[in-house]
Design goal:
Strand order of the largest sheet: 2-1-5-4-3
Shape: rod-shaped
Largest sheet: 5 strands, antiparallel
Number of strands: 8
Helix content: 40-55%
Distance between the termini: 101 Å
Low-confidence stretches: none
Mean pLDDT: 84
Structural class: alpha+beta
Length: 244
């Protein structure tokens, strides 16, 4: 009964207002609207939520409603209302807690603003700065990730070049085996690499890769090296062994 009387009082007080006035519950549901709001906003009387009537996201609307509920003085925020025929109405909305209702409710008054309004200009500038800050932060993250990837690729290429030069100078199959143990782990990122010729017995290893024409590469590693890295390394080792 008290709630009904309060809503009736709201409608009576705001019936002559030329600006849209709304009562909004804590969950964003529109409880009441004055005639100016009904004339301006389609669907405002159809159990709408405030987020259904504006262009801003539901998260932004929820944040505004929580802010308004914490104060008894009208606090401004910018919202874009959906008018008839798809018209977007930029408004400065003054909200405060409706003290005459027993449940948490916002009394909201919307004032249309022109493009030169200082509040709108400042709000747009702040939003633009925030978007720029986010873009700069993401660009910094992307640049750091790219630099890390480039550094890793450059290091691997250096190790691969060292392996190529060493294998080209190997004079015996045994020399190839020694060079593999020394230079393959940095290339593939493994703990140990053992090259076993046809007459050798491979030691226990997590990964064994055939190396044509007559060898096996045994790797001690916690992770599978990329297939393209394995392919390039085994091709180099196989090429070195084919000379003998």
């Amino acid at each position: 009964m008290i709630r009904d009387e309060a809503l009736g009082l709201f409608r009576k007080i705001t019936s002559l207002h030329t600006e849209p006035v709304l009562l909004v519950a804590a969950d964003g549901q529109v409880l009441a609207a004055n005639p100016a709001a009904v004339r301006l906003l389609p669907g405002v009387e159809d159990d709408s939520s405030l987020s259904d009537l504006v262009s801003e996201s539901a998260d932004d609307v929820g944040r505004f409603v929580r802010q308004w509920l914490r104060t008894g003085h009208p606090t401004p925020a910018g919202l874009t209302l959906h008018g008839y025929d798809g018209v977007r109405l930029r408004c400065r909305c003054f909200g405060a807690r409706a003290q005459w209702l027993p449940t948490p409710t916002v009394h909201l008054r919307a004032v249309r603003i022109d493009p030169g309004d200082r509040f709108l200009t400042l709000k747009d500038r702040v939003n633009a700065l925030e978007r720029e800050r986010i873009l700069r932060f993401r660009a910094t993250e992307d640049r750091a990730a790219l630099n890390t990837a480039l550094s890793a690729a450059r290091t691997r290429l250096d190790h691969l070049h060292t392996l190529v030069v060493a294998l080209a100078a190997a004079a015996t199959p045994e020399a190839v085996t020694k060079l593999v143990a020394e230079h393959v782990p940095p290339v593939l990122g493994c703990a140990r690499a053992d090259l076993h010729l046809a007459d050798a017995t491979p030691v226990n290893a997590g990964l064994r890769i055939p190396v044509p024409p007559h060898a096996t590469l045994a790797l001690t590693t916690d992770a599978q090296p990329p297939a393209e890295h394995l392919e390039s390394v085994t091709a180099l080792i196989g090429g070195a062994l084919e000379r003998f």
